[in-house]
Amino acid sequence: MTAPDPMQAENGSNPARDLPRKAPGGGINLLAGLRILDLTTSIAGPYATQILSDFGAEIIKIERPGHGDDSRSWGPPFLDGYSLWYASVNRNKKSVELDLRKDEGYGVFLNLLRVCDAFVTNQLPKLRQRLRIDYETLAEKKSNLVYVSLTGHGSDGPRAEWPCYDIIAEGYSSVMDVTGEAANDPQKVGTPAADLLAGSDAATACIAALFDASHNGRGHFVDISMIDSMTRLMSPRIMTYLGSGIVPRRTGAKDSVIAVYQTFETADEMITLALPNDNIWHHFWQAVGQPELGSDPRFATSADRHAHRAEIVLAIAKILHMRSRKDWLDLFNELQIPAGPINRIDQVTQDAELKRKGLFFSIETDNEPMPQCGLGIRIDGQDSGFRSAPPTLGQHTDEVLRDVLGYDSIRIGRLKDAGII
User: Fold this and answer.
1) How far apart are CA 210 and CA 218, in angstroms?
2) Beta carbons of 407 and 398 less than 8 angstroms apart
3) Which listed residue, 91, 93, 239, 420, has the most CB atoms within 10 A of its CB?
4) pLDDT tens for residues 44-79?
């Protein structure tokens, strides 16, 4: 299959038009009744609060007047004025423009804080103190506050003020050093993995802290570091080194403690193949018509196969070159031999099983449909659904101040005239 021309896609193609259209409502509502105040930007923090929103929490997203979340400007591509990066992590939220640097704006912030159950921020410690949104200050005003800090290096120590983005965290964690071909430079993971993992950690820890707060009435300070989260992701490789002294090197997904566990060429497209135990090892060689290799005493155990990896890989490569990817995958899946395709993004979005599960959908906007990638978690047979499209900047300012804080139109108008909202 020929890869799509990215310039052609840029000039008018919108695959979201072919996605199933989902109406707002329904979905998982296990966190309904919780209200989260969100002062985050970019990817990690907004991803954390989107997870909470997908589980039913109400998210009030505070943004700088006239500017908003940094990711609003990340592009191309854009769709109907939206950055698609921004749109990927901000559904189900209410956007409020608010200038915290002004006393009256800070007063509005505190009023919102009092009616929220948790506060999530990715501001660095000194900026929090300048804005008077540090944990110590806010905990005095709301004793049962769950405060979630999500930064690159954490909230204390000599690196606390150092800026950090996904690529920085991936470099620190060693994941870049073990990713890619041996002869090539270290490679970043092809998605903002540190952002998304740290965001998931922040959401999980927030829920745990809220659970305790609901039982014991005490607040918590949750400290998430992107580098810590990403380093934890490397724990199988780190443990291997710490227990053996062997430093793992990048091999282009052609090495593992399991032999065989890697990519292979077929007659047309590449596949992944895993032979992690003796039973699957024997089934594989029976499936490809060479059972004698499966019973060869030189390859009897996983350790034996590890020692003879090069010889085994060469034999498998010769066999797999003889048939197409589809032929091999049909056979391996039928016999429960772990194998799969190496999909491009366009192929992933056309995967029949992912489409059946509703992982990809579109929602109505003024013009083009807005694509979304769902949470991918089902509870009691229900997926996360969605309640609202990613908000435009300040879309819900009046609504939140009126309906949540009870401000009348005169007070809201005065705040607008003063440039606070």
Assistant:
1) 9
2) no
3) 93
4) 999 999 999 999 999 999 999 999 999 999 999 999
Mean pLDDT by 10 residues, the chain (421 residues): 42 79 88 97 98 97 97 94 95 98 98 98 97 97 96 97 97 96 93 98 98 95 98 96 94 82 95 95 96 94 93 96 97 96 95 93 86 94 89 97 98 97 97
Work out whether strand 370-373 and strand 360-363 pair parallel, antiparallel, or are unpaired: antiparallel
Q: How far apart are the first and last CA of the chain?
A: 51
Tokens 């109406």 correspond to what residue?
23
Q: Are 164 and 226 in contact (CB under 8 A)?
A: yes
Query: Which of 121, 219, 123, 114 is CA-nearest to residue 163?
Result: 123
**Number of neighbouring beta carbons within 10 Å of residue 176:** 19
Query: Which element (helix H / strand E) includes 347?
Result: helix 345-348
Query: pLDDT digit string (tens) for 89-138?
Result: 999 999 999 999 999 999 999 999 999 999 999 999 999 999 999 999 99
Dihedral sign, CA of 186, 191, 192, 193? negative
**CA 371 to CA 363: how far, in whole Å?**
7
Q: Tell me if 51 sits within 8 A of 90, measured CB to CB.
A: no
Backbone φ, ψ for residue 171 (5° rounding): -65, -45
Rounded alpha-carbon distances, angstroms, from residue 300 to 227, 235, 282, 296, 312: 40, 29, 10, 7, 12
